[in-house]
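Final report, closing paragraph on structural work. Over the funding period we assembled a curated collection of sequence-structure pairs, and we close with a single example.
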Amino acid sequence: MKKIIIIKYGELTTKKSNINYFLKILKDNVNKAISGIDATVTFDKGRMFIESNVDNYDSILNKIKNIFGIHEIIIGYKYDDREMESIQNNIVELLKEYDLSTFKVITKRSDKNYPLDSMEISRKVGGTILKNYNNSKVDVHNPNLEIYIEVRINAVYIYFEKVKGIGGYPVGTLGKGLLMLSGGIDSPVAGYMAMKRGIKLECIYFESPPHTSEAAKNKVLELARILSTYNNGIKVHVINFTKIQEEIYKNIPHEYLITIMRRMMYRISERIARYNKDLAIINGESVGQVASQTLTSMNVINEVVKIPIIRPVACFDKLEIIDISKKIGAYETSILPYEDCCTIFVPEHPVINPEFSKCEEYEKLIDYETLITEAIKTRDVIKVDNKNKYEDLL
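Its predicted structure, as stored:
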């Protein structure tokens, strides 16, 4: 008998002919998460298995619970002897520590050549339990204990408890995206949801010193660290946006400040994304939440880039976004009272239905190409991981 961790895939099983591509990346992500622990990871199209020293299993479980692509995690027992009598004896031995007042046996037989079908195995095991534990009863609707048996080609697996995974696709299976990460609630949630669809993240953050503080920057780096729990580290491109923002404020009608500012951010983000082979820009915009997030504004702002824009929270209300923010552990950081460059210089009456022609006319008032080139050239790139380590890359 060997104790073993079993990973169930869930949504990945719909991938059929290209499932091995997804599973290989999932295996790589698992190996990265448990690096430093002596463990062996194997997989087939039905399950992934992790074998290690028994003392390591709690640590492994803690490290893999935030990996996208995992539907369920099980700590179970592997037996090479598949004889029915052995299965019955092994279960009787394992159940000594469990409450068997009511139970249910659930069998999955992936080896269709096994001489007994799933129902027959469940009945035989159930009968053996009733004989050996006098006060036990079968309850197929609401049992105290569910007993799972999987009969596979080379072994039998027995387990009693499951831990729900976070689902989705393994990070990296759908390429890379650049998240416009601010210090607010929405953008970290958008990043989380993009990663759940298999997108590996880099981030871009716009700072505006001295109008924004070092504390605001550190807040964003902490949000990146939280997201790196799901991403195996994240690069953050920190853009000094001060000169651009001040030029916009001095030269452009104030009702258009936010619109023009966002168009500049999109231009910079697209260039950073293309340079780093990111396939899309991701942000936390939610339809109608602020002036720059009306459909008209989104169209006018999108017009300056040709790369796809993904808005994972576009149709969520604020309470739904807050619920996810709390779930991923970002909320308490997101509400820290440090202003970012999107909240300074906010006009009293920003335009909610901007016009393309006016944006083009107003942008001629500033030498934005030179300013953008300088901002990209002088950016900082910081690598963040989930161990509170920050590393300057430039």
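Residues 2-167 form a domain with the VC0802-like fold (CATH 3.30.2130.30). The chain has a mean pLDDT of 93. We thank the funder for supporting this effort.
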